Amino acid sequence: MPRTGRRPGAGGTGEKILAAARAHFAKVGYEAGTVRGIAADAGVDPSLVLHYFGSKDGVFRAAVDFPVDPASFIPRLLAPGLDGLGERLVHFFLETWDSPAGSPLLALIRSVVASEEAAAMLREFVTREVLGRIARALEVDQPQLRATLAASTLIGMAMLRYVVKLEPLASAKPEVVAGWLGPAVQRYLTDPDVTARGRDPRIEKMRAVAAKVSLADQLNKIPTATRPTVKAAIKLVKAIAPKAEEIPYRSEAPRSKSMMWKLVRYAVDGENVVGIGTFTNHSALFFYRGRELDDAGGLLQGSGKDSRFVTLSSPADVARPAVKRLVRKAFRKGQAAI
Fold this sequence. Notes:
By secondary structure, the chain is α+β, with helices and mostly antiparallel strands. It has helices spanning 11-32, 35-42, 46-53, 56-64, 70-78, 85-98, 103-111, 116-138, 143-163, 174-190, 192-196, 201-210, 215-221, 227-240, 315-318, 321-336, and strands at 245-248, 261-268, 271-278, 283-287, 308-312.
């Protein structure tokens, strides 16, 4: 299996970059982390980060020091099918941790009790790089929630086996532990009942209503002047978050011209993130957690408790880089909240 750690000869500069990367990812997470941010913390040019580690993915895996690239082993875990996936996953982790190549990762596991930085790195790697990839590949509902639940079993197992050394878990053979815990991991990843209990009944009711509403029908009803802008906004959101759930509003044109006609909203794992609406002569992108967004361009308007909106007068407004950045930030924040 291919090795994915640091490049040979990284030396002092490489170690400095890795130290900065660990602190950077622990503070902001993988999604918000940047090569520029790591370089700034390390006091080096961004090109050096890429020279040593190739990409943000590369420096992240090197910072965790996981001995195998998830992109290479996950297809092999999935290839036999869903049956037994949980056991194969537990067995793979145990074999990796117990191998000589897994010793740096074991050091990370042992340090999570005393180091929030180590704990954040381990959480981020297991949920995003491994279980998140698997959940997305299975195309199940609420993949982030399922990955988090499965991670709780794997990380808890690692803590009890390698740190607390609780028997009989500590000395049991990998295949035995996989038999014990595999079914739990399997259930978290694939069982429909796991996510059914946590669903907000209000969201479920809105989905049922929305199923009877066609977004195309809604678009045919709105003012001709704003239709191109609304279509451009929908295209932008779908390009940035193609897996977000599209939920049309079941609404008619408001009586007052000063009121927004809400048309559609986009949700991630049941959480509304971005919505699109229109007025008589302009449209709007509204952000359900807009108050929390970093709006360097000063585009966000509104003074509600949480939501904010951006005015769109034409498709050109939708294409502005600042608008695209806000939409990306909104979905990143929405995913992080799950």
